[in-house]
Structure formats: C-alpha cells, structure tokens
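Task card 7
Instruction: Convert sequence to structure tokens.
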Amino acid sequence: MQKPFLQGTSCDLRALQPEDANERYLSWFHDAETCRYNTHHRFPMTAQTLQAYVQEVSASKTAVVLAIVEKESERHVGNIALQGIDPIARTAELAILIGEEEARGKGIGREACALMIRHGFLTLGLNRIWLGTMATNTGMRRVAEALGFTQEGVLRQANYTDGTFVDGVIYGLLATDPQVS
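Output:
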C-alpha cells in the first residue's frame, strides 16, 4: 500500500498509480448515475484512455490529482483534484468524483475536499480556490457551503443533462476567508 500524500480521518489522498487504471475505475465513467453532475459520461472511456490520463496527471504541474482511499476498506473510491492551477493569479479549480456508490454520503467527499483545500492554501500558496457545479447538485452545493465557499454566480443554462438545460453555480473560497474543516 502506497503511503498517503495527505491523511485524514475517514480517507487518505494518494498519488494515482498505473494499477488504479483498472476495470473498477473505468466502470465509474460508464455509470450514468455516478456521472450525473459532470461531463464524463458523454463519450465512452477506454482502458487505454484511462491509462494515458493517469500518466498525464501524474506528471502535471498545473494539476494535483489524487486518489481518494477510504480508510475502512482501503479501497480507491474516487478522485479529487486542484486543476487549472494558475501560478500568477494563484488560483485553482477544485473537482471531485466519488465513484464508488457505497462511499457516498459518508462525509468522505467533504473530508477529501477539506484536505485538498488546506494543501492548496498552505502548501501551494493559492489565494483562491473555486468550483463549479450544476444547480441541481444539492450534495456538492451543501459541501461547498459547509466548507466556507461563497456562491459567486450563476451560469444560466450552462449545462445540458437528462434532456434539459440546467444552470451552473460557481463557488469561490479565498485563503483569507474563514474555512470550516
């Protein structure tokens, strides 16, 4: 078992490894419910594409993409990222996917976000972390607000899902904002 990069109470975050690009991980992208609030399910994902992605993000200096490992089961249950890191503006986008259905609703996503936010502000020296989600994604919106993010805007009909256009919501968090962990 690889040593965690960031340690939490219910989950650890570690670098993605080539062996993570397995059938289980691939199945997340082929599950419409898992990808309900993102764009991963628009085109099929192949094993080769997934392997290339893991290699690419492992070498990136503009994104920190980590595997979320549930401590209880020691399973890779999702991924979290600070992506689009801008070293001049000192900003990044927070993105998360909990791929394993049984890992959802346990607070693992919130804890993973808190760990990554702390890393972004204290280690990477970021000033602003933002995230975008669909207005209908009440779970992510609750997590964002619980972590101290402020809703900064609405992107009218910015997403297309389930045959309808849905607003996007943008949240931001500054290093100087009070944060809930």
